[in-house]
Structure formats: structure tokens, C-alpha cells
Amino acid sequence: MSVEKPVVSLADLCSRYEGLLVPDERQGFEGYLISPDHLISFCRSLRDDVGYDYLSSVTGVDNFPAEQMEVVYHFYRTTGGPSFNLKLQVSRHNPVVPSLVPLYPGADFQEREAWDLLGIRFEGHPDLRRIMMWEGFEGFPLRKDWREPFFEDEAKPFKSRWPDGQVIRSEDQNPYKNNVRYPNDFDPEQWTPVGDDALYKGMLNLSQNIQSEFKTDQIVVNLGPQHPSTHGVFRMVVVLEGETVLSLKPVMGYLHRNHEKIGERNTFLQNMPFTDRLDYISSMSNNFGYALAVEKLMGIRPPERAEYIRVMMAELTRFLNHIFSIGFLLNDLGAFFTPALYAIEERELILDVFEAVSGSRMMCNYFRFGGVARDLPDGVLEKIKELVNDRLPRKLEEFERYLTKNDLVRIRCEGVGVLSPEEAIALSAAGPILRASGVPYDVRRADPYSIYDRFDFDVAYGLHGDIYDRYLVRVEEMRQSLRILKQVVRDIPEGPIMSGKPQYQARVPPGEAYGRVEGPKGELGFYVVSNGKPNPWRYHVRAPSFINLTSLATMAKNQKIADVVAILGSIDIVLGEVDR
Amino acid sequence: MDGAMILEWVIKSIFLILVMTGGFAYVTLYERKVLARIQVRIGPNRAGPFGVLQPVADGIKLIFKEELVPAKADKLIFTLAPVLTVIPALIITAVVPWGTEVTLFGRTIKLYLADINIAVLYLMAVTSISIYGIALAGWSSNNKYATLGGLRATAQMISYELALGFAMIVPVMMAGSMSLVDIVESQKPVWFVFVQPLAFLIYFIAALAEINRSPFDMPEAEQELTAGYHTEYSGMKFALFFMAEYIKMIAISMIGSSLFLGGYRGPFVDQLPALGPLYLFIKVAIVLFVIIWIRATLPRIRYDRLMQFGWKVLFPLALLNVFVTGVVLILVGG
Q: Which of A27, A164, B15, B59 has a Cα-to-Cα distance from A448 of 20 to 30 A?
């Protein structure tokens, strides 16, 4: 990766935009406000001159009763360092902002999501369609005045159930079919989906002007939503010429449950178990990210022992996620479940540890604001020591011996699905995808959180950006995780596991916070805005596997159809997180 | 040709078909058990002791399943295709000898259905027919995955048929006859696999491709094409495809054993001819095990590379092997 020295500093740039760029001076908020007219030119200088080349997150905040909506951007440097937050304030009636897709193509899906859920129109976006909801859906569900069909109350705990406990369910009072609001001329019985035909036509037109000596027809194939290797209900619309992929568009949202809306109804603590359901393979990391964001708002830090336990759990999660994803990558390559089942065997052992500490194997719900829920039970530390020092390194070597030099694996993976470092950064790819492309950007190093600055570890990165490098990066990361874990089990101190006493209701002062961790799948961020009430005002998840999918179309272009499946496997998506 | 002889043929044919269909059922169990062991699992063990009734349970389930025919499918061909696939698979082993002769009820019975002098040609011809079933199944289901699967199958089988044919010619040259009985008998001193290891390897690889087994299971590549040509099939029609695939597995193992591994030959088989079928059975079981083992361990090769491998490596190699064998045979004066 070429590191160019920024020609101007951030302060220079800010002073150049004196008057147009206003610091956000609300209590607990940081960053700058800018007017939509200057966004593009400012961001161009920000990217090209100052070096904030990585657009981590784009989202919106609805400031209902106030007639105003905010668009929030988080920029980072891939060379490391803290974020630069930029905000736009627009009218709620007609929120129009310029699209950043021409500058940062990684904003593509995130802007579509903001349009879909909040109704913010991004002028200049090449393909501004709904992404989670269906085409023709009425309203923008994340707006504060939008109410779900079984609406009960603005915020939990619902008054009908607490404190008196007389449960009245809104589905009884408001039975099915009376609860839904349709636009006036809409008849659900007569409605036919319209979005897809336009999508197919557009894709065929795009790929039509290809010269070939034969007259051939291109076909549109829908890989998914029911398909064995999309890892869930995910659809790839593929235009094929023979077996070669000419263009590809991912279609998602089949598992959409408006996680963020539910998260805004929940109290802060109720969201902790809810984050488990995002990436259900690695719930501990999700907990970690959310706990960090809220702790930033509350201004507390967990005690030493809790920090060590957290890092331990996060690294075990990384190991199990990577070994699982490698196993299933091989499955996507056509190996009949053997590598996957070998991987699952190791995963089970780690899940045993999770069960011992948290009581649950997958939905751990283990972290709390200012610590963790319980201390390690007797014997668990010995078990982890045994795993980390003996069993897991041995099994990792075994995996490597069978797979890394395997000719069939290399033939299928080398040079397939290549993503150049420039593309990877531009498309906001994160985690192993970004690092395999040769950008050694790891949040644990670039912007250390928790106690990661104390441990020795290397950031694994690849040079070619193909599937094989992503595999190698994952293997190396597992090894580095074990290295961190060895230091953790050596150094873990005795002591309390919570700062303050455990509480059912977190008191969160007003403000905003963006907590991000290096999750196994990439940068997992939680953008939380509090207005001092028991419920978050805005709860946004920067889901790594959702944003990594932005680069799928680039990687899959001109590859064979068999490779598309492997490429998708190498991105390592979990649909619970993609669709939220 | 007396009536008893015709009766004998009929009985032998029925016996052969029953053995093949029963064998199919138990090869599925065998495969599941072996796969499970390789994958640190236990495998089916609920239906009957050690799961021996599992194939029966599977069969009953498939019979009672609803048969779906896609709305825009070509119904006649859609129904015909599985039949067209399964019949060649059933008749292919007619020429494979199970042993020499045994005496039952005072009658000398030859342990093979037909000893025709063009047996190897017959094998080649019959294996080619089954492609039609697969291609038609893919085409008639009016499904893109199925069409792609059917096309892949056709291209793949045609490419590998050549290498397969050349590999099968080698034992014919060594034995000087196309009859499988003669070929097996001429392996009395030494099995052909020791004289012609390359031909056996080519035969084995090409045969795997021919019957669409891993790592050449392109036409039904689950990860890409859901189930390939039989995506739209359900119930008994699906079972027929399934049956064809497994019977072809047995057939390929039997033919391979006969051509290269000495067929029914083994120690004391001349003194005790009834040992013949047992030896053949053991050899088939070993070859089947290798096929299953490969399925459990190898990832799939990509389609275009598979074709390259077939045309650029396997085919020239097979041709060269035939040429060298011919030259050596003439020089030695065979």
C-alpha cells in the first residue's frame, strides 16, 4: 500500500472552510456540521488532500418533533487514527443531500439503506432503490412518526406490562388485517411485484453491447433467495454469458426486521441481547461493540479483569468465526462437508466455554456496560488454557496441512475474485477482505480500543486480494488470536468484573457515540445517540458483512458462475447481520 | 436352445436387476456410513440395527412423496427422462462375468448373463445412452439451473467418453478379445492394473467424470446449480435419477474390476468357482470405498478447468498409452 503524506492537515482544511463548516456544539456531540452544497467539494479535499480515504459509516438521525433530519458520516484514515465526523442537517419534509457514491463507492448500500428506512434522498446516487423493504412500500420505517403494525408504545418497558404486569397485547386489540395501513389505491390482493422486471431489464441492457463472433443470448439467473450456497435467504441476480458472469446485483432484505427501530424502542440494556442476533456466529463481538459505544456515552471503563475477559471472549469468537468460515468456504468450493464438520468440532469446544461463562452457546448476552455479566466459573480458565495452548494450535496446523497447499483449493482460489487495494478502500470493505487486498488496517491496531494496545500481535494481510489470500489472512488471524489469548490467560488479574453495581437501567447522558471493534467479519460499529431517556434515540449498526457485500459485484465481474459462490463464501456473510 | 435355457436367462436377468437395485439401496447406506465416519459422525443408525433398514425407509418416503411437474415443463420428456437414464444403468452389467461355472440342481450354470464378443463396445454404447436422459431432463424441466446442469453433463460426458474409451481399449489389446470373460481369464497370471497402471488411472478418472461423481460432479454442483439437471424432480422420478447414479457407480466399479483388477479371479477360484462372485463383490466394495472417499475429501474442480483437463491432459495421455501398448505388444510379439 502506498502511503501518501497528506498535503494539508485537517486543521488547514477546516480553516479553509471557515464559516461553512460549523463545529457541532451540542452537549455530548462532536464533529462538524456542513451545508449540503459544500459536501462534495469538502469531501473531495478530505479524501485527496487530508487522507481520510475510508468512509466507515453513513447513516441518518431523525430529530422528530424538530423539523430536521441529520445525515452522519464517519471518515477514517486507513493509516490509522481517530474518526472525523461530518453531519448534514436537512429539512425533514424534503431531505435531499448529495450522494457520496462518486467519491466513496462504499457509500452505495448505506445510502440506499438511509433512503429506504429514513427517506433521505441522495442526489446523484446511481441506483437509489429500496434495499431492505420491498419496492412499493409506503413510508420510511425508521422515522420517529412511523408506527409499526402492532404499535403499542413509543418505548419499552410497555406500560401495559410494567410495573403492574397486566399484559394486554396489541395484537389482540388490533387484530391482523386491521393493523396495517395501505396507501389509498393499494389492494394487497391485486398487487404484483414491480421492482424485479425493471432490475432484470436494466442489467441486460447494460451488458448487451458486448462484441462476440457468435450470436449468443445472455440469461438472467437468480441465485437465491432459496439456494444452497447463499448462506441464508440472499439473492444474487446474475447476467450470464455461457458460464461467465457479466454483471451481478445483490438483493437482500428477506430477513429484515428493522433491528434498529426495535433497538430504539428497547432500553439500552435490552439491546445487549438483541445485538447477539445480528451476527449470530459471533455474538460476543457484537456485545463488545455495543458495550463500547454505550460506555463511551456513559464515560465509564470496565475494571481490569473485565477487560481481560472481554478480550478473551472476543478473540475466541474470532477464532471460531474464522475456522467456521474456512470450513464453509471449502463447502462452497464443493468439498462435501468434511472440512466444515472438522471446523464445527473445534467450534463446539469454544462454544462449551461460552456456555460455561454466559449460560448460552450462541446468544451469549455476556457483556454489560462497565464490565461483564458474570465472572469466569471455576475451571473455565484451565479449560481455555488447555484449548489455547494445546488443542486449537494443533488443529489449526492440521487444517493448514490439509488445505493450504492443496492443489485443488489453490486452483479454485488463486487469482479469483480479486479486489485491488484501491478498490477495497473505496468500497469500504472491512476486515479480512480489506486486509487480504493488501491494506493492513485493523481497528485493534489503527484505533486501539479496550486493552488491545497491551498485547503483541501482528496484523495479517495479503498481497493479491483473491480468495486464497482471504483464506490465508483468516488462518493467520486465527494464529494471532491464539497469540493474544496466550498473553491474556497468562496475565489475567483477579478483581472485580463490574465497575459500580449491576443495574437494570443504564443512565446514559445525552450525546452521541460511535463504538467500533474489529469484529471477525470486519469493522463492526454501533452509532448510538442518547437524549437522556432510558431508550436510545438512535441506534445504528455498521454491519460489516452488509457493507462488504458492496464489493461483491466488483469481485464477481467476469468470473465463472462457480467462482461467484466461492467469492460469496470468502466474504463470509451472515444474513442476520446483512438484513438486520 | 431349449426352454430351460430361456428360463435360465430370464431368472438370471431378474436376479441381476434385483441385485443391482438392492445394491443401489445398500450403496447409499454404505456411502452415508463411510462419509459419516470420515466426517467424525456416526451416520444413520436409527432404522434397524446399524441402520440397515434406512434404505427401506428412504424408499418408502420417496414413494409417498408428491410428484411435482413444473407448469411449463415438456411433460412427456420430463417423465421419460428418468426412465431413459435408469434403463442403461440397469442393463450395462449384463456382460460382466460374475464367475466361471457352478453346478446347481444338477445343471451347469454359467455365472454371466451374456458372453458376447463385442462386450466392450456394448459397454461404451450403453453408457453413452444415459447422457440423453440427463440432457433431456435438464432441457424439459424449463428451469435455468436444470438446463445449465444438463448442458454441462452433455459436454462433460462427451469429453470424457473418449479418454474412457481409450483406457478400455488397452485391456482389449492385452487380451486380444473384446469379450469380458476372455479379458478376465487372460488376467490369470497377472492383473492388468500392474501392467497398465496408467490405463487404470485414466479409466478411473474418466469413469468418475462419466458418472458425475465428485470431484467431477459438475452437472449437479449443489453450490452453483442447486441440484443441476434434477432440480425440478421429486418423488419417484427423483429416486430414479438417484438410482441410476448409484447403479452406475456399481457398474463402473464392476467393469473396472473386470478390466483391470482381475474380475472374479482370486486364489482358489479355479477349484471353487463359487468364490468368484465373492471376490468380485470385495473388489467392487473397495473401488466404491475409494469413490466415496474421494467425495468426502476433494473440493470440486471448476467446470472450464475440468474440460481443459479432459481434452488437454487425459485424452492425449490415453492416446499415447494405447500407442505405446501397441508398439510394445508388436515388439514382444503378443
A: A27
Tell me the nearest-neighbour CA distance from A480 into chain B, angstroms: 27
Q: Report d(CA A160, CA A166) in Å as an integer.
A: 6
How far does B158 lie from chain A, in Å, by closest CA?
Answer: 18
Q: What are the Cα distances from residue A174, in Å, to A139, A152, A171?
A: 20, 10, 5
Three-state SS at A393:
helix
Task: Tally C-beta pairs within 8 A across A and B.
Answer: 76
Distance from the A220 Cα atom to the nearest Cα atom in chain B, whole angstroms? 9
State the greatest distance between any 2 C-alpha atoms of chain B, in Å, as a whole number.
64
> A226: which residues sit within 8 A by CB, 6+ positions away?
A233
Q: How far is residue B253's CA from residue B291's CA, in Å, rounded to a whole number?
A: 9
Name the CA dihedral angle for B71, B74, B80, B82, rounded to a multiple of 10 degrees.
-60
Judged by CB atoms closer than 8 Å, whether chains meet at A562 and B300 is answered as yes
Nearest CA in chain A to B32: A336
The SS3 call for residue A547 is helix
Topology at the third CATH level for domain A10-123? Beta Polymerase; domain 2 (3.30.460)
- Asked whether the beta carbons of residue B299 and residue A227 sit closer than 8 angstroms, the reply is no
Name the β-bridge partners of A74. A57, A85
Question: Do B223 and A228 lie within an 8 Å CB cutoff?
Answer: yes
pLDDT in tens, chain A (580 residues): 445 555 677 777 777 777 778 888 888 888 888 888 888 888 888 888 888 888 888 988 888 888 888 899 998 888 888 888 888 888 888 888 888 888 888 888 999 999 988 888 888 888 888 888 887 777 888 888 888 777 777 888 887 777 777 777 777 777 777 767 777 777 777 777 776 777 777 777 665 555 556 666 778 888 878 887 777 888 888 888 877 888 888 888 888 888 998 888 888 888 889 998 888 888 899 999 999 999 888 888 888 889 999 999 999 999 999 999 988 888 888 777 888 888 888 899 999 999 999 888 889 889 888 888 888 888 888 899 888 888 889 988 988 888 888 888 888 888 888 888 888 888 888 889 999 998 888 888 888 888 888 888 888 888 888 899 999 999 999 999 999 999 998 888 888 888 877 777 778 888 888 888 988 998 899 999 988 888 898 899 998 989 999 888 888 888 888 888 888 888 888 888 888 8
CB contact under 8 A, A335 and B300: yes
Q: Locate cell 460374475: which residue?
A: B98
Q: How far is CA A572 from the centre of its chain?
A: 12
Domain A259-579, CATH number (from 1.20.272.10, 1.10.645.10, 1.10.530.10, 1.10.10.10): 1.10.645.10
**Distance between CA atoms of A320 and A336, rounded to whole angstroms?**
20
Three cell numbers at A415? 487469482
C-alpha of A58 from chain center: 12
Hey, of A220, A336, A561, which one would you mutate to test binding to chain B, going by the most B CBs within 10 A of its CB?
A336
Please report how many Cα atoms fall inside a 13 Å half-sphere around the Cα of residue A355, on the Cβ side.
7
Grid look-up 471376490 returns B279
Residues A575, A170, A116: CA angle, nearest 5 degrees: 40
Sequential DSSP letters for A188-236: TTT----HHHHHHHHHHHHHH----SS----EEEEE-SS-TTSSSS-EE
Q: Beta strands A121-123 and A96-98: pairing type?
A: parallel
What whole-number distance in Å separates Cα of residue A304 and Cα of residue A369? 14
pTM, two decimal places: 0.84
Decide: B282 and B262 in contact? Cβ < 8 Å. Answer: no
Angstrom distances, CA of residue B143 to CA of A448, A557, B127:
52, 24, 25
Say yes or no: B309 contacts chain A, CB-CB below 8 A.
Answer: no
Cell numbers given for A530 = 442518547
d(CA A223, nearest CA chain B) in Å: 8
